């Protein structure tokens, strides 16, 4: 199958999963993850209407950006180190891997200096071992009010990567836990937190069933990474 055909079948599966969940397909954004694939390959999905891309490495993303249309909304989906904050603020539509108050504060500081408001998602850890980065749930509950005070970031919601499972349905409790956590954080902070970035190539249907508003899909579109 060509990239265009695989993209189309991901879109179809997104729509049918949304329908099964009693949701509208418009409520779920497809973020195509272009990491490791060169701009020449990635341009194939852009030619077929894709307007947002996810990258997990800062350097790779910044090198690819000038080679593709300026209208693309770039999402940084990998962990964000403190020494990279200055490089990324203002360069991404959304920073999805913000996993500590320290990083959020650093982003806030640079955004304030730059005179912008930087959209981001808070990455949360569910399921204990197996998941590397992300806020611990209990810590995030304690820190959400302080995070909500940071005026030069816009916290749009949560992102998660569940621990590895053998069948995608086994990931559903983790996705459900993130949605429940989101609801609690909304009450506590007054933030809308409307985005739930969850679901990848193998488990995006399960994530949509549990309320995902953004699936991050790489290999199902481009094939296996080298
Ligand atoms: C690579 C990556 C994806 C996409 O994974 P696929 O299994 O190829 O769909 C999604 N989210 C994050 C955070 C990633 O690093």
Query: Strands of the largest sheet, in order across it?
Result: 7-6-5-4-3-2-1-8
* Termini gap: 18 Å
Radius of gyration, in angstroms, nearest whole number? 17 Å
Shape: globular
Per CATH, the superfamily is Alanine racemase
Q: Helix- and strand-based class?
A: alpha/beta
Q: What's the CATH architecture?
A: Alpha-Beta Barrel
What ligands can be seen in this structure?
pyridoxal-5'-phosphate
Count of alpha and pi helical runs:
9
Number of extended strands = 8
Percent range of helical residues: 40-55%
Summarize the structure.
The chain is of the alpha/beta class. 41% of the residues lie in helices and 18% in strands. The chain is globular.
Task: Give your account of this protein's structure.
The longest helix is centred in the N-terminal third of the chain and has 18 residues, at 3-20. The protein has 226 residues and is an alpha/beta fold. The chain has one domain (3-222): Alpha-Beta Barrel (TIM Barrel), CATH 3.20.20. α6 packs parallel to α7 (172-189). The chain contains 9 helices and 8 strands. The mean pLDDT is 97. Helix content is 41%, strand content 18%. α7 (172-189) links the parallel β6 (153-160) and β7. The radius of gyration is 17 Å and the shape is globular. It has an 8-stranded parallel β-sheet with strand order 7-6-5-4-3-2-1-8. Bound molecules: pyridoxal-5'-phosphate (PLP). Residues 33, 35, 56, 77-78, 161, 200-201, 216-220 line the site of pyridoxal-5'-phosphate. Pyridoxal-5'-phosphate is lined by residues 33, 35, 56, 77-78, 161, 200-201, 216-220.
């Amino acid at each position: 199958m060509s990239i265009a055909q695989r993209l189309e079948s991901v879109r179809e599966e997104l729509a049918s999963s949304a329908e099964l969940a009693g949701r509208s397909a418009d409520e779920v954004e497809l973020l195509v993850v272009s990491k490791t694939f060169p701009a020449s390959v990635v341009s194939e999905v852009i030619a077929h209407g894709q307007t947002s891309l996810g990258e997990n490495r800062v350097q790779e993303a910044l090198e690819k950006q000038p080679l593709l249309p300026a209208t693309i909304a770039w999402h940084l989906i990998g962990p964000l180190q403190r020494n990279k904050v200055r490089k990324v603020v203002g360069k991404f539509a959304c920073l999805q891997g913000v996993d500590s108050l320290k990083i959020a504060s650093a982003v806030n500081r640079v955004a304030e200096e730059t005179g912008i408001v930087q959209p981001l998602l808070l990455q949360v850890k569910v399921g204990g071992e197996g998941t590397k980065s992300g806020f611990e749930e209990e810590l995030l509950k304690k820190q959400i009010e302080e995070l909500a005070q940071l005026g030069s970031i816009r916290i749009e919601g949560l992102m998660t990567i569940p621990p590895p499972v053998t069948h995608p349905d086994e990931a559903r409790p983790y996705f459900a836990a993130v949605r429940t956590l989101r609801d609690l954080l909304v009450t506590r902070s007054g933030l809308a937190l409307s985005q739930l970035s969850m679901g990848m190539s193998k488990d995006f249907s399960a994530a949509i069933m549990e309320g995902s508003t953004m699936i991050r899909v790489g290999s199902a579109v481009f094939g296996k990474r080298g």
